[in-house]
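To whoever is on call:

I kicked off a structure prediction for a single chain this morning and the downstream step that reads the tokens threw a length-mismatch warning. I double-checked the sequence; it's 452 residues and nothing unusual in it as far as I can see. Pasting both halves so you can look.
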Amino acid sequence: MDQNSKDNSKKSISIQRMHLIMMAVAILLAVLLLYATYSVMEGYDILQKATDQYIELETSTQNLMSASDYLTESVQGFVVTADPSFVDDYFEEAKVSRRRDNALDTMEKTLAGTETHRYLEEALWYSNNLMEIEYYAMRLTIDANGMDINDFPEELQNVTIRPRHAWLSDESKRSIAIDLVFNDEYQRYKNNIRRDVDLCAGALVSDARNSQRQSAAHFREVIRRLTICIFLLLLSVLFMVILTAKLIIDPLNQGIRHIRKNELFPVTGSSEMRYLAQTYNDLYESSRKEQETLSYEASHDALTGLGNRAMFERVRNDCDPATTAMILIDIDYFKEVNDTYGHETGDQLLKRAAKVFRASFRSEDCVCRIGGDEFAVLMMHSGSHLKALVQRKIELAQAQLKEAENGVPGITISVGVAFPDRENPTEDIYQDADTALYKVKNAGRNGLAFYE
């Protein structure tokens, strides 16, 4: 091994070690990034939990006051109007919806063991006393209005009218019932409940803000670490890119001049490069033109220049069958023309017919020669509403072909047409067009028939 080989070997080993070091640095930074990301997610989960808890408790406090106000409205409505539907509304809320009880249960679970819990206990005590007053007021109203107590919920049936109220007149009972749910004591109970609930809500807001401050401080520290890690990672990536470009990419660029023969070269540089580029470009263009020629010959009829059977089948499979009409054309007695005038004249006749057919239809329509004297047209975006137009096109083509031209004898044609919206179709539009064509042939040829 010569001295240069030894130097190159040492250089290669040095590069390998450098790559290993940079890889280790990158892995370390990636681990730190993952840890920092996990810390962010953990802090977010804590903040999300505190926020969800606050939202849940805030919703519970709102439900508690909303349910309490709804019960108050129901009991007040009943004692004033004696309408039993208010009692139904009251117990629907108290026993079925149970917003007040559910709200208190939620708050009980969350606030248990905290200083805020005593406000909740007070609110619960006032709420229970308020409900006893409401039951008693409704019981007095039932008795004062001579209603059957058995028609009301069991909770009201179990309420006993106090002796001092039992002997009072109905009007007095109604007055006492109304006073019970409208007096200052009732309102004081309501205000106390609202006060305790507001105190709970205030404590919740304070706790939520503390959690947010702690989470914000945590996020700031984690983001600072993330920023440092990302900066270091970018520096290491940049260093690795420069090192790779200097030691790997540049040497590769010196060798890839010899493997770019599959691309089109710009004709620039030295005469040798210009010659090489021009030679490659000539070969490239020759190959492309040969491919285009082969593709054209594979899909076109060599005699007439129309599409051949392969193109016909491909276009037929690709077009929209709901908007494509099928036209089949046969040259009448073509064998006799060949026998009488010769095959060269027959070929000229086919070319002339192809020219007429191509001129008779639109550029978007596909005109093909699918057999010796058989032609087909796939007429795009058409339907039976174009029947008169198709008939006119065929008649003009028939009129042109009947006249002899440049030594080519006149001919007649038989045409069968099937539209996509034809009545009583079979599964194959080609078969239906062929059926129409044979209808013309059976009638003596030289004509046009539509599949119906």
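Update from on-call: the warning came from a stale cache, not from the record. Cleared it. Sanity check on the structure: The two ends are 92 Å apart (CA to CA).
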